[in-house]
Amino acid sequence: MTISIGIVGAGQFARAFIPLFQAHPGVHDVRLTEAVPERLEREAARHGITTTYASFEEMLASDVDAVAIFTQRWTHGPLVVQALEAGKHVYSSVPMAVSEEEIAAVVETVGRTGLTYMMGETSYYNPAAVYCRKRREEGAFGEIFYAEGDYVHDMDLGFYDAYKFSGGDGWKADASFPPMYYPTHALGGVLAVTGSHVTHVSCLGVTDTRGDGVFDREVSRWGNDFSNATALFRTADGGVVRTNEMRRVGYPSPLRESRFRFFGTEGSFEQLATTTLWQDREKAEDIEELMRTVPTARLDDEALADIDPSLRDAFVSGFAPVHDLSRLPAEFTGQPNGHEGSHQFLADDFVTACLTGDLPPVNAWTAARYTLPGLVAHRSALAGESSWRSRTTETPRADPSPPSRPPLPGRAGRPHPATAPEEPTTVTATTPLAVQLYGLEKAVTADRRDTLRRLAAMGYSGVEPYDVLTDPHRLRADLDEFGLRACSAHAWITGDQQAEILKALPVVGADTVILPYAAPERFADRDAVAALAGELNAAVRAAAEHGIRVGYHNHEFELSTLLDGVPALEVLADLLNPAAVLEVDTYWAAAGGQDVPALLGRLGDRVRLLHVKDGPITVDREQPNTAVGAGRMPVPAVLAAAPAAEWHIVELDQCAGDVFDAMAQSHTYLTTEGVR
Known about the structure:
Oligomer: single chain
Shape: globular
Strand order of the largest sheet: 19-18-17-27-26-25-22-21-20
Strand content: 15-25%
Number of strands: 27
Structural class: alpha/beta
């Protein structure tokens, strides 16, 4: 039995894998789709591909068995889910996705469908990882307690041209991709050796100073101005890992762009650009020859003509002495290779997994463990926190149903749940504190800078603006002046100013927009709720193109209104796109008659933001709020019930005394409750 594979994207990286899939004895047909018609025609002719498709959707509608996705790095998550839902096995280039929600959706869909998913992480077969994995299995390290992984690739060494090739006129917006959103060439190589996973993270970013429009937050698709970032991770086995993601650095990236260090109780391993050492208590042994790869093509090969010379080494670097070639198909002999010998192994892993039903080494659960910590690390850097801990974000493991189409031979009876990790994929972080500015509207109107200054002095890490359209550049400057972040923003994202809002949010630095209110009649019956969900889902799709999440904020009536015995907010949550999030106003939920911890437990990971407030718990809006901790709300239990919350946002709708005093008291109380 053999399979057909559809290549999605005909860019520089895809061209390195097309010949491998064509040569593999388990593949009988390779097909191609590409958004640029001229490129589609040219690459199909170059590789002798006879079946092409004008769109991804057209390919998914065909009888192709599997797809290999080589598109822009921030598009992978949704495309993977779309392909899995269409019944296709999926190979995806890195990264897995660019949000926790996208990662969770991929894992859930893989588990439910039983289809093969593999992320093509080259560091799994990096010579250093191969060597250290073997030494660990032999016990030579003893216990690995500390490791480092660096992905050191200066933008001037080929990345400018690569982004221009793929990004067109808007390439600078794409080139500012947050370094920690691309964590797998450093962290993946470490975890591929230790077999552990990350539980805690702290990260610091370095603001770029080049001034050429790359890593410029006002140009960036992600509002990102970090060009370098360093993260420190705690792992589940008690070890510590440090990684560097560097894009502005005086270093010869073509010689070795991923490098590693492992320290164990019995032995250690260290790399520099041209040096590799194995060490124990008695000696240091130079093992660089074991790491050195053999090129598979000349750097002036015609096939590399449109690739920047600084990047060509990565596309031709073949096997090192540590690689075991005996497991590869004989048909791969003489075929191209790349990224230090990894390409042939990755292609074989995927085809073999599709044919046998076995999990590939970098399956969905492993890919999540390589990718998710980087996303949380970037969030840590943005918040400016020195340590993120004590809150758990879990990549869910679904109970899968049988595959959605007849399995290939060998797939029957191989459901994925038994192959999911014994422990969940987790990253834990202290949830930072922010303030919803609407409760301070009078103070903000009178003197916004002074308001922000006072909140920053109390120790708050962020604020939630309610107006991003009136001079977003000035708002961002004010936030930056006092070291505050826009944790999210309230805006009428389903209204006629949607385009303007989506343009303003990255300027302000917010990656989440919350619809702050929908009228009670929108929750009167299931049809009304479905209509609201449709509007929000349309906004989710529009915002996703800008890297923005959409969510909903409740009042009391969404919880007091029951539809067939179910709170209307939960009915809405069930109808929302999986990428949509919830901002639960915990006080109004209690005023609506709900056991708030129980409600949060039912809503689960959809709750990404919490409005934390306190008071007498009443629907009477004339009754003032108190400082958090001074009212009737079971605050510690509420916070513990929402482990996926990314921000705890203090909001006081009304306050009997001085609102700034109440904000300061709230911060003190929440700090003593272990929120940060």
